[in-house]
Amino acid sequence: MIPRSITKLLVANRGAAATRVIRAAKAMGLQTVAVYSEADAALSYLAMADQAVPIGGSPPHQSYLNQEALLEVMRDTGADALHPGYGFLSENADFASKVEAAGAIFIGPSPRHIDAMGHKARARDLMAAHGMPVGPSSPVLGTTAAEITAAAAAIGYPVMVKPAGGGGGIGMLAATDEAELLAAVERARSMATRSFGVADVYLEKLLLRPRHVEFQILADRAGNTAHVFERDCSVQRRHQKVIEEAPAPGLAQVVTRSMANQVARIMADMGYDTIGTVETLHTEASGFGFLEVNTRLQVEHAVTEEITGLDLVRCQIRLAAGEPLSDVIPVMPEPRGHAIQARIYAEDPVRFLPSPGPLTVFRLATGTGIRIETGYAEGNTITPYYDPMIAKVIAHGADREQAIERLDAALAASRIEGVKTNIPLLRAVLAFPAFRAGAVHTGLVAEVLEMQKAAA
Q: Which of 81, 241, 250, 339 is the most buried (most CB within 10 A)?
């Protein structure tokens, strides 16, 4: 594919995602167009863009999910490319096709890849056909109790019910017997229909204390593919990532590098283009098992940037424009040191309910090895309309211990008033002996909370 020149980039997102993309685009000399909802009109990052255009009402469906409004802004401003960030429309194949039909570049993979990976059950089958390790699972479940219970019996309890068309942990429900299974399937279907517009659900074997390890892929439009190592995203609460790091602690490099190479070969065989992330669950007994492919920029991309020196957003833009991978990354990097990221949420640290309100004080500590990603500033208001994440704090160090110490010190020195935050939980995780030892798994946060409850 002949590279196309991008001159003006529409950033179809908000907050930290939009801020990050605008910063990268400006560093590339591109003009930028930001969009904003009524709720976001006062956010200070909008001034970073060359243009800022109102997109609609505060609810997402009136603004950041309003495809026709975004396409109209793209046409009216003369933007020749659109970056969807993460969340919202970033993995919507229909929207990506509309952007391309309008003559602009969608900063992401081709719509066919977004579509192929958007249905989790079909994506699993596709990856398995190309040689990806896959754990015990079912096809999309039928409608009768007999079909559902037979599928679970073939896998063996416990099982996880998962929506085929969704993400973010929504509708993922565990079941340990038939009674729990039938109730979970009914509830998951209802949640999936409401959240994703697709009622399909399927089953996977529920692994106990697995690790969540993902692999960052880069590819060009000519089929050249490479990986830039792994990230560990095991520290989660209710299937939502809280702390991410790279490299994955406690796993031998020969093990992770072998899997990363295999993933890169599989994605090359599929003709994948631009960047993507292959997510897996890992146990010592079962090894790596496919979870899903995210066809977008990940929230946690910064930890990979910190250990490689790459700017993944700039790489993504250049690859989407048709530049060859060998020009975008002439020399593949080797990881240096360790990086760890904490997501700060505006939420009650005990009940974990959203805590909207004004940021009367918002002073995130900086220092050696500390990087801050946010779309907010002191005086802004956290509204109830969007994800309550207000900032990401990333620490890089010569080793994992130094990175953890730097991150904890930055969190301890940060001051946020007007809303409650999860910083107490983040610091408790960082101090937890199992975390310090690198013995991370997806149930670790629950163990921290149990420890806190016992000590209260």
A: 339
Q: Strand 81-83 relative to strand 8-11: parallel, antiparallel, unpaired?
A: parallel
**CA–CA dist 7, 4 (Å, integer):** 10
Domain boundary among 53, 74, 107: 107
**C-alpha 299: how far from its chain's center?**
4
Average pLDDT of the residues of the chain: 95
Evaluate whether residue 237 is within a structural domain: yes
User: Mean per-residue pLDDT for 146-173?
Assistant: 90
Residue 102 CA to residue 144 CA, distance in Å, equals: 44
> What is the signed CA dihedral for 371, 387, 62, 50, rounded to 10 degrees?
-10
**Residue 137 shares a structural domain with residue 72:** no
Radius of gyration over every alpha carbon of the chain, rounded to an integer in angstroms: 21
How far apart (Å, rounded) are the C-alpha atoms in residues 363 and 173?
38
Residues with a catalytic annotation lie at 296
Q: Tokens 């081709």 sit at which residue?
A: 110
Cα dihedral 127→129→133→137 (10° resolution): 80
Do residues 154 and 182 share a domain?
Answer: yes
Alpha-helical segments (H) within 85-159: 93-101, 111-118, 120-129, 145-155
Three-state DSSP class for residue 14? coil
Whether residues 250 and 285 share a domain: the answer is yes
Do 196 and 132 fall into the same domain?
A: yes
Residue 19 backbone phi and psi in degrees, to 5:
-60, -45
Q: Is residue 112 part of a domain?
A: no
**278-309 pLDDT, tens digit each:** 999 999 999 999 999 999 999 999 999 999 99
Q: Which strand (E) or helix (H) includes residue 281?
A: strand 274-283
Q: If you average pLDDT over residues 320-333, what whole number do you get?
A: 96
What pLDDT is stored for residue 107 in this prediction? 98
As a whole number of angstroms, the distance between CA 229 and CA 216 comes to 6
Which residue do the tokens 């591109």 mark?
Answer: 30
Q: Which residue range(s) make up the domain with 148? A: 117-205
